[in-house]
C-alpha cells in the first residue's frame, strides 16, 4: 500500500478524504466502521445495504482547516460543536443516537491491533498535498463561542470562580432537564436492594432500569449511603464542601436531623439552594455560604465533599485535605466522593479542558488515599462506583435527548452539541475503565477502633 494520497484519491471530496485516512492509518474505506458524506455530496466507506451504519457528515471545508491546525481531539470537537461535522443515523438504523453509535464503532476500530496514526514524512507530505488540492489550507478558524478562554495562574480564587461559573452557572433550568428531582450532579448508587455495600440496609433502593424514578431512587440511595457512612444523627453539624444544588445538605437535614453548613463558589447554585432552603422552611437547619473552601473556619462533626476534589488542582490538593482535616472534630468522619484516572494524564483531555472543566486534575485512586493519610486522616474504607457512574450517565443522556428542544431553547444549539459530546464521551470513559469514581471514608483519629472498620 502506498503513502501517496493522490494515487488513492478519487474525484469526490469523500474519496480524497478516504485516501488521506488510508495514508495516515492504513485503514481502507471498507475497513472504516462508519460511512462518510462530504459537502459536495460524495459518499465513501464500507458497503451498507441495510443502511444501519452511522454516517459522518463533513458539512464544510472549514472542518478540515481546523484539523490541519488542531489535529486530533480538539480539532474534531471544535468542528463538531460548530456543526462543521455531524453524525447521522443510517436510514435503516432506527431511532438510536448516531453520535454515540459512531463513537462506539470508531473506538472499537482504534483498539484493533496495529491500528495507529502513522505520521511518516511521506504520509504527512501526501496528506498536506491533498489538503491543498481540496482548498482547505488557510488561516486557523476562530474557536467556537462555547470554548472557554481563561487568564491568570492556575487555581487562583479568581480563576477558579471563572472555571466554576463556565460550567455550573449555565442555568439551573438547563441542569434540571438532565438531572433527577434531587438535582444531584454526581454518580448515583445502584446497589442491590436492601444493602448499601456496608452491611447495612438501605432506606431507598434503586429499582430496575427502565422504571420511572430509577435515577432519583439511585441518587437517594447514594445520599443515604453518604449519611450512614458519616454516622449522621440529630444534633450533629455537617459541613458540605462544594454543595452543588444542595442534594446532600437537604437530604441530611430532612432525613437525618442534622444542621448543615453548605459551601459553594457558584453564584447560580448559591441562589438556587438559598431559595430551596427558604421554600422548605429549613433556614434554621441549613446555612448556604458563597465562599471558597480555603476560607472555611470552624469545626464540625462530619465533613462531606462530593465530586469537588478533582477541581482544586494538584498543587492545592494538600491544602484542600488540610481543610478537610482541620474542619472535622477529632473522631469525626470525612467522606470524599471523587473521580480518579489511571496513568499520567490527569486532565479530562483536550475537549474537556477546552469546553467543560478546565484545570481539572484526576489521579490514580491509590495516590489519593496516600495523600489523605499523609494529612492526618485515617482511611477507613474505599468504595468504587465506576459502574454506577456509567449507568448514571446513561440516564442523563436519555433525559438530555428527551429534552432536546427545551435545552436548545435555554442554551443554544452549540452548547447542546458540546454537552452531547461530553455526556457520550464521559459514559464511554467510565464503561471502559479509563476514569473511575470512588467514595473514600476517613476519620480524624490516630487509631480507629475495630467497630469503625467493621461498619465501613
UniProtKB/TrEMBL annotation:
Gene3D superfamilies: Vaccinia Virus protein VP39. GO terms for biological process: lipid biosynthetic process; methylation. Transmembrane segments: none annotated. One of its GO terms (molecular function) is cyclopropane-fatty-acyl-phospholipid synthase activity. It is an enzyme of class 2 (transferase). Pfam families: CMAS (PF02353). PANTHER family: CYCLOPROPANE-FATTY-ACYL-PHOSPHOLIPID SYNTHASE. Belongs to the CFA/CMAS family. This is Cyclopropane-fatty-acyl-phospholipid synthase.
